[in-house]
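tool_call: predict_structure(chain=1)
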Amino acid sequence: MFDNSSLTPFSVKVLNTLLYHQRRVRKPRVTADDVPPRMLSYGDLCEMLDREKRHAICLCEPLARIEEWCVANDRPNLSALVVSEATRRPGECYGRSPQFSRDSWEQDILDCLGTINYPLHIC
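tool_result:
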């Protein structure tokens, strides 16, 4: 189990925002066709966090910590939901954890959208 106390307050805020978004868009038996409208751009996530879109680089470190949290808690990678608005693919920060990679992103996002095994929030 991951020690949540090692997350910064901002990482906790990002994680809880992604948990909320995933609950809103999850779908049992999700297919690749279901994915695009359920993704969240880095800019949109920034706005949800009361940050300006141009400050999306501030998400890199929290998303890396979220990957670690997902691995430690045996959960699909929540950061798979976050993509570049221009490419609709994850950015360079994706896949820092050895369990996730940019090559597996398509499966990672399907796993994320299809699960009900996330907590409602973390403290």
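agent: The beta strands are 40-41, 82-83. Proceeding to next step.
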